[in-house]
Amino acid sequence: MKSMTRKPSAAHPFKPRAALRLCFGGALAGMTVTVWAQTEPAAPAPASATAAPATATEQAVAELPSIIVVGTTPLLGVGTPLEKVPANVQTIRGRDIEAQHSQTISDYFANNVVSVDTNDAQGNGSQVDINYRGFTASPLLGTPQGLSVFLDGVRINEPFGDVVNWDLIPQAAINTIQIVPGSNPTFGLNTLGGAVVVSTKNGRANPGGNAEVSFGSFGRKTAQIEQGGVIGSNLDYYFTANVTNDNGWADHNSSQLRQAFGKLRYTDADTTISLSMGGADNKLNGSQTIPTSFLDNRRQAYTFPDTNENQVGYLTLSADHYFTPNIQLSGNLYYRHYRNVNTSSNVNDDFGEVEDDGDIDMIQATNDQSVIVTDSYGGSLQLTLLNKLFGRDNQLVLGAAGDFANSHFTQASQNAFFTDSRATVGIGGFNPTTDAKTRNENWGIYFENTLSFTEQWSMTLAGRYNWSKAVIGDESGVQPLLDGNHTFSRFNPAIGFNWNPTSYFTAYATYNEGMRSPTAIELACADPAAPCSLPNDFIADPNLQPVISKTFEVGARGHIGNATTWSAAVYSTTLDNDIQFVSSEGAASTLGFFQNVGKTRRQGLELAGRTQYGPVGIAASYSYVNATYRSTWTESSASNSSADGDGNITVHSGDRIPGIPANTFKLRLDYAPMPKWNIGTNITYRSSIFARGDEDNQDVNGTVAGYFLIDLDTTYNVTKQLQVFATVKNLLDKRYSTFAILGENFFNGPNHTFNGADTTNEQFLGLGAPRGVWVGLRYAWK
C-alpha cells in the first residue's frame, strides 16, 4: 500500500476535521493518504482506526489518525468521512469474503449483510436474487430492479432489463464492497432502495500471489490464481483468474464458471491512471421451482433443460489528478460487451384450447431460446473541491456521466413434447418470434455538497438530473407495433444532517429521492390487450410512467472502547408508479404484461453490532422490513384460491409484497484457539414470506415457512505460505425454501408425468440446498 503525506502550507492549512484516510476504489484502490494538521489537538480515532503517535518536529506538526472514507458518488474521488455520511453504509472487505471461503458473493451477503436476503427462483446458486431492504437486484429479466450496482465506477446493471448478473463479478478481485442505502440520487437510475459499489484490488496494495484449489459436495471443484506486484516506482499490476465446475445439488442445475480480471496502474504523488479489463464465460443450468406435490424427491426438476449462458468482456480506463491538495479531478471511460443465451423448457399455456380452425391444441411443450447481445460504453467526470464556505469547512463534488448501449434481442420458439422424465424433445426446428434492436441513452449531471457548520454539525445537499431515452425497433418487419421512442427525465434531490457530539457517536437524518425509468423489455410488453411471454416476447409498447422513490432515514452509529461498534437505523421508502408484471394466465404463467400499480412502501428497522473479546469475535444484526402495497389494483392469478370466476384477485393497500421476509437475524462467531487457527460459524434466521401470485395474501396455502441455518468454516495456517480450510453449509441439513410462486401443475400422471387434462393449482417452491462440505488448499508466495 502506498502512503503519502501532505504537510500544511500557508496556502493550504489543514484542520483536524479535514483529516482523511483516502481508501480509494477503482483506479486508486489501496492508496492511503495521511493528512497533517497544525498544532491543534486531534479528535480520538474511530474504533476501526489505529492512532498514530504524535511526533514533535521543528514545525510542531502532528499526524492525525485515519478516518474511514465512504464513496457517496459513483466515482469515489476524495470520498466523504464516514462521520459526515447521513446513511447506514455497510463496508465489506474482500478479505472478509475470503476468510469465510464464501462460494458466491450472494452467499456472503445472505450470511453477513444487514437487511439482505436471497431468493433462489432459478434453482442455481450463482443466479439468485439479492433483496436489500425489500429492493431487488436480480439476473432474471422482467424482475423489477431496485438496486444499482457499480464495478470500479461503472454501472453494471445490464442496459437491457437492468438485470444484475452476480456471476460476472470477479469475486477474487474484490477489494471492498459498500452498500449505500436509500435513494441516493448521485448514483443515478435504479437507485430506489440502495447502491452496491464494488472496487477492485491493485498490485501495490496486494503484492505477491497465491494459488487455491477446493473440492467437495455435489462435485464442486474450483481452482484460482492471483498475482500482484510493483514494477519500478510508479507501475503496479494485478491479475486473477478462476475456474469452477459444479454438478449441482439437484438434478439439472450444474454450473461452469470461468472468470479473469487484470489491472495495470500508474501512480505518482498527484496522479493515478488505471487500465483494467476482465471477462467471464459461464454456463448455468437451473432446476426452476417445483410444486409441493414433488417434495417426495426434492432434487428433481419440474421441466428441463433450462440453461443460461453468460459471456462478458469489459475494459475500463480510470484516472484522477490532484491539481492542488484541495482540488481533485477524476474520471473514467469504459466499454462492455455482453452476450446472453437463454434456453428454457415450458409447458404450452394453450394446451387443450380450441384453436381458430376448431382443432384442439395438443402441443404439450415449447422450447424458447433468446439471445441478447449488448455493446455498452460511456464515461464519467467528477470534480472535488475542498474549500471554505462562510468560513466553514466545505466539500463540493460536481459530476457528469453518459451511458449508452445498443442491444439486439432475438427469440425463437420450438414445439416440443415431454418425456417421462419431463425433458422436452423438440418437434421440428425453431421458428423466429421476435427480432428487435434497442438503443439506450442515459445522461446525468449531479452535485453533492457537505458543509460543516461546526465541529459537531454538518449538512449534505445533493441532487442529480437524469435524462433517459429508450428507442425500440422491430427488425423482423412483422411487428410494427414494437417500434417506439420513449424519453424520461427528472431532477432528484437529497438532504441530510449529521451530529457528532463525540468521536464515539454519530446521529443522522436524511431525505432523498431516486428514479427508475421503464426498461425496454417493460415498455415492449405493456399492453394488456397483447400479453407477451416473460421474459422474451415483445409485442407493443404503451407508455409506462417512471418509478419514483422517496426515502426518509434516521439513524445512529458509534463505538464503545476500541473493540465494540454498533449501528441502528429506521427508514421508509415509498415508490410512486411502481411497475409489476401482471400475469394473464396465473402467477406461474410467463404470459402477461407490465403495468404501473400505484404506490408501494418498504419501511423498517435495522440493528447491528460487533465486538471482540480476546480470541472471540461476535457480530450480530437484526432487520425488520414491512413491505406493502399502498394502492388497490387487480391482478390475474387464477391459481390463487381466492380468485374470482375470471381468475382475478384484488390487491388492497396494506397487503404485503410477496418474497420479502419481515424479520431477519444474523450472527457471526469467530474463535481463534491459537494464532494459526480460526473457527467460524454463521447462524441465520429468516421469517416466512408470501408466494408470488398471492399479492392479496389470501391464498389457502398461506405463507412459506421461515428457516434457521447454521454454516461452519475453519482455516489453519500450516506455514506462512500454506493454508488449509474447510466449510460446511446447512450443517443441520434443514429442508427450506427461499422463494415461492403460485401456479398450475400439469404433471399429475404416474411418477409425475404430463397430464394436461388433470391439472392442480399448487405452491411452487424455490428450494434451498442440503448440507454440503468442501475442503481446500491455498499456497501463497511473495
UniProtKB/TrEMBL annotation:
Keywords: Cell outer membrane, Membrane, Receptor, Signal, TonB box, Transmembrane, Transmembrane beta strand, Transport. One of its GO terms (molecular function) is siderophore uptake transmembrane transporter activity. GO terms for biological process: siderophore transmembrane transport. One of its GO terms (cellular component) is cell outer membrane. Residues 1-37 form the signal peptide. InterPro entries: Beta-barrel_TonB, Beta-barrel_TonB_sf, Plug_dom, Plug_dom_sf, TonB-dep_rcpt-like. Residues 82-195 form the TonB-dependent receptor plug domain. PROSITE patterns: TONB_DEPENDENT_REC_3. Residues 264-731 form the TonB-dependent receptor-like beta-barrel domain. The keyword Membrane applies. It is a multi-pass membrane protein. Transmembrane segments: none annotated. The keyword Signal applies. It is found in: Cell outer membrane. Its main location: membrane. PANTHER family: BLL6183 PROTEIN, TONB-DEPENDENT OUTER MEMBRANE RECEPTOR. Belongs to the TonB-dependent receptor family. This is TonB-dependent receptor.
